[in-house]
Amino acid sequence: MSDNQKPILVFGATGQQGGSVAAALLKAGWPVRAFVRDPASPNSLALRDAGAELVEGRLEDAAAIRRAMEGAYGVFSVQPSSPSGTVSDAEEERFGTAIADLAVESGVRHVVYTSVIHRGDAPTGLGHFDSKIRIEAHLRALPTTFTIVRPGSFMEMLAMPGFGLDAARFDFFLRRDQSMPFVAVEDIGKFVAAVFADPARFGGETLDLFGDVLTGAELEALFTQAAGRPIAYARFTEAVLAENPFLARLTALVDNGRLSAEGDLAALRRINPELQTFRTWLAGGGRRAFEQALGTSGTWAYNQA
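Given the sequence above, the corresponding structure tokens read:
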């Protein structure tokens, strides 16, 4: 059996990144084996109806993971992180390193691990970033073909309630002249499918994934244009940061450049010619979420998994 006739095991297949990867791999003709907690959930059934094979298991269950890896060509590895409220940083690290170890043990040919954009390998002081840095280091030390992808902040996050869009404003980490890299979740799957299709090119590589790099002022202009009315941009106030240590630590990482991107947008577009800018995302797949955010108040919560 040729490699592209063997399945790719996708973790997190009912979530944002895993779901994007499963959809892109199925579209590219790969057999997809989805590791799911509940095969009867609506998201699992949608995967099955799209053509994925469902394998039930939990990240704590090494035996279930071994069974799921039998005969697999590749593994896409993503874990929940502590901001989701479902795991600790230590658990995320344990799950991520165990999946890598079990992939080697099972003879998996190519492991693709999704991390997060960050500069340098020194600890950041933010637990769910540092857990990923340690998983990356563990994977690099193993005798297997691997690729690490580091997505920027999700464009989908920008259209969540809680940033003030319902009050004609947008409060965020950036100063007006600071920039951050952003990526549409759908594009993560397209990049990962391209990586699995060309291990000779991407094996051993670490890729920052982003479709746009935007300043606070540019976010204001794009939101204003999309809303058809003024949306005023402001950085989180010092009072807000003082009340929320998590936001304060993320903002400090923006300020010290640890969340900046390395890479060439033109090169990324050669890998994924359909790569979305924030403008195209707002006009397309993100339009509905943006319109809902314009009319919905709420409390912001970070979950990038």
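The first strand starts at residue 8 and ends at 10. Try to locate this feature in the token string yourself.
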